[in-house]
Structure formats: C-alpha cells, structure tokens
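Just wondering, does anyone understand these tokens?
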Amino acid sequence: MVPVSFDLPVAVVTGGNRGVGREVCRQLALLGFGVVLGSRDLRKGEIAAKELDPEGNRIVACQLEVDNSISVAAMADWVKERFGRTDVLVNNASTMYDRWATASNAELGTVAEAIDVNLFGPWRVIHALLPMLRSSSRPRIVNVSSEGGSISAMTGLPGLARQRGPSAGPVPGSGRGQRDLGRDHPQRRPYRYLYPRRPALPLVAPGL
C-alpha cells in the first residue's frame, strides 16, 4: 500500500498517466492534495505515479476505464475504502475521434466510442464519486474540454477546428458558454446535484 495520507484533501484525475492529466497530477500533489492517478493501463499509471512521486507520499495509481461502468464503480469503491473522501475530480480522460470525417462518411463505431468516452465517461465518474463530493467542504469538478467540442466552431467540413473569428460565438466550456447553457442542460445538472455546496464546475480547454 502506498502511504498516501488520509489527512490530505483527495483529488481524482482520470487519464492521469500522460499528457495534461499527468501534469495536473503533479501540480495537485505540489498543492497539497493526495492524488488518485486514474489510468486505463494500471502498470503505466504506476510508472507515472512513481516518476512523479518517488517517495509515494502524495500520488497513487488506480485502474480506471471511464467507458466501463464496472471499472468506474470499482474505482469509486477503492477510493472510498482507501481514503473515505473525494474533494476534487478532474475529468481529463478522452479519446480521439474522426475529426476529418463528415456526417455522410463518418464511421459510426468510432463516433459511438468517442461519445462513450468523452461524454458518458465523465458523467459516469461524476455519478460514482458524487456521494463523496457532496460530503466535502469544498468540492470541485473540473472537466477538461477542447475547442473540438464547440458547436459554434463546427462547419460540417473536414477538420472541424478552424481559426475562430470574433463572431464565432462562445466555446461551451468558457464562462460565457456556460452561462449560455440552459438551466436543464446536461452539463449543468451535476452542478445542481451538489447543492448546497455549490462547487466550482469549470470546463477548461488547454491552449485556448
């Protein structure tokens, strides 16, 4: 067992073994969090955790496939048994999709896989960790997004991401974009579930 302190606030990061997720894990540990580094491949997650935290005091790996309800439930049970709390959730795990395709030639299997990981994946993890987040004094959920998910940037042409002009409209993950969402939009529902704690629920797009 890795001796991560139970006295620390706990952050769960999906897709934490590489890229943005790995860096998020590193910085959260520096900020004083005990970090659960979620990784589809547990061995890769353990290697990343060891590289980031050689002493094993702040970061511990956990196997997690966000498109697998059994895996998500097992992760939540493990976190509850091990730490008894979750204060921060960073939904970072994602998969590539066929951005080069149009509606007329898209491979629907690829589309379905992307939706299962990129949309329902974060939703599954939120549902699984919600009871512990509700018990936190300062719960936070951060959904890592991208301009690729911006409806206003979609053109129907190959390569959805174009250079955004001043009239392109808000990215849904931006502050203005969130305000423009209806009260019953799915992206807002997890936020309302956490009342009266009212945690921050930002969507961030690295590089924007």
Observations:
- Helices lie at 19-30, 42-52, 69-82, 108-135, 175-180, 189-193.
- Confidence is low (pLDDT under 50) at residues 158-187.
- The first strand starts at residue 10 and ends at 13.
